[in-house]
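stuck on whats below:

***
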Amino acid sequence: PWRSARDLPATLATFTIVALLFVFFRAPGFSEALHVLAGLITARPGPVDADAVIVLAYCLVAVFGIDLAQRWAHDDAAPLHWSVGARGAALAALAIPVVVFSGGTPTRFIYFRF
């Protein structure tokens, strides 16, 4: 986690690069990945999946909560020091979106494409 405002640009740059590269790993082909990136750049209108928005919001809250716990404890490994019950509850809460929203069309794992 970034410690000061001067670390924020590097953090945002790393996140942006990783997010853009994930598009190429998830897309069926290179042209589809470019089509997705073009849609992101042009901000063209299109349908938004409500389930995806719910999962995104849930994950943002969870990551923000873990980051706050680390900052308050001044320790990056703060969640490792929680009691077994608290860690189990946190992991169970993070697994909820996977269980609830995973009922879509099955897709093959990414490495089976190579």
Notes: Residues 23 and 37 are 8 Å apart (CA to CA). The chain has a mean pLDDT of 78. The helical segments are 8-26, 30-42, 50-73, 84-100. DSSP finds four helices and no strands in the chain.
